[in-house]
Amino acid sequence: MGPPPQGPDDKALQLMKIFLWSPASGWPSMEAVTAPEVAPGSTLKVKEASPADADLPQASPQRGAGSPTPQLLPPIEEHPKIWLPRALRQTYIRKAGDTVNLLIPFQGKPKPRAIWTHDGCALDTSRVSVRNGDHDSILFIREAQRADSGRYQLSVQLGRLEATATIDILVIERPGPPQSIKLVDFWGSSAALEWTPPQDTGNAALLGYTVQKADTKSGLWFTVQERCHRTSCTVSNLIVGNSYAFRVFAENQCGLSETAPITADLAHIQKAVIGYDTQLFCCVRASPKPKIIWLKNKMDIQGNPKYRALTHLGICSLEIRKPGPFDGGIYTCKAVNPLGEASVDCRVDVKVYDNSIQYQVLKAMLKMTCSLLLCAFQYKL
């Protein structure tokens, strides 16, 4: 290669970029393109070309006179590739405040360039730090926040060759409290509640709701239902004569909400008074529609004017008109259809204290589940 051509004013030279391509068969072909002006004394670097090679011949300015010296750059010995750990191939979930420390191994020779992006933008270096080694890259977040959630992409570049890997990170925290909880109704030893979902789910799907009750005498809270998936609930087995308040927590992977709204109204579970009618309730679900039979001490009481049995939308009720001491016993609700039958019992004891009659359900209402029916026995005063 001869000395570079001199310009008319002998103050600058034109650099010619020469490309040599060697096809699989045939003779190599050459192309020449004129580059912008460069200072005299520049050195021409020529590297071994291959179809996968991305770097073009370039000139690097150097001070001082001298003829161009060819330089052979190291070839690509190993194409870039990322080895994404199996655990990071699905959404990586962390709790708010936890540390995120991801080590992603890769290959490439000579040493490739590793670049991280967050949702297509450059990383916020005030929150996220990166350390790139010869064979791996580490993404580190000391205290993760919900704003750190998103899609992170690692790009390993070697010339024009590139390998990419995508990691979805989700930072979650406890949900907010449910809203608008209210006591819809109460009857017998049961109460019906309704509420609306929380505004903030904590960046995660809700697992359900936890319902608690507290009587005004003790003021202690007890859980009556966990992982309730609906925004309504019926609380049973409340003690006669007590008044109850209720509250509801929302729950996700991080746990229960920090606070819970409390019902503004109390459920007053009243005692039966002499001369007042008493009702028993049974919820029945079956297909085909079953026939409902009420029994007292295993004796059919249908047609007895002392009792009135009703069924509406799967809720069966038995009204005991003006109960007396002899109305105590085991009451049974039986549902029968062509596929089988199911029943549930409730024991009612009637006692006399100081010439007044009080009614107590001494045995807790039973719940029976079978392939045909789902019955939950309750009573109403």
UniProtKB/TrEMBL annotation:
Keywords: Immunoglobulin domain, Repeat. InterPro entries: FN3_dom, FN3_sf, Ig-like_dom, Ig-like_dom_sf, Ig-like_fold, Ig_I-set, Ig_sub, Ig_sub2. Residues 177-272 form the Fibronectin type-III domain. Residues 261-345 form the Ig-like domain. PROSITE patterns: FN3 (PS50853), IG_LIKE (PS50835). It holds the Pfam family I-set. Residues 38-75 are annotated as: Disordered. Belongs to the immunoglobulin superfamily. MyBP family. This is Myosin-binding protein H-like.
